[in-house]
Amino acid sequence: MIIRVAVAAIINQDKEVLIAKRSKDQHQGNKWEFPGGKVEANETSQEALHREIMEELGIDIQSSSEMTSITHEYIEENPDNSKTVILDVFDVRDWRGEPKGVEGQPIRWVTVSEIDDYEFPIANVEIVNIIKHL
Fold first, then answer.
1. Eight-class DSSP state of 11
2. Hey, CA dihedral for 35, 21, 17, 127, is it positive or negative?
3. What digits encode the pLDDT tens for the residues 42-98?
4. Per the structure, how many domains does the chain have?
5. Annotation-wise, does 106 bind a ligand?
């Protein structure tokens, strides 16, 4: 199974990045992640980014730029549970509204020096490394 995901690296004026905690019931649950979600059929990654960020955080992205695209394969003991994720990552620094965990998820602004204190899904490691060098 291949899943395309639009991901936002939301960075504020203080150079802090917004992270959200995954529900314990989700794949890679209880880990921190960069907000975003699945790209639906007949939707571009940019459209999915805007939709997902509004749904998850209640903010309206004003502009974003492509940061990177990451492909990661999660191999499970049961091959039927294995999946490949393609993360289309966007740098977001301009939005309207105040981010909040609309779906009840904890969110947090963290500095680059604090980011290693949080556990992320393995597919997010490359995003963390890019953010450390911004």
1. B
2. negative
3. 999 999 999 999 999 999 999 999 999 999 998 877 777 788 999 999 999 999 999
4. 1
5. no
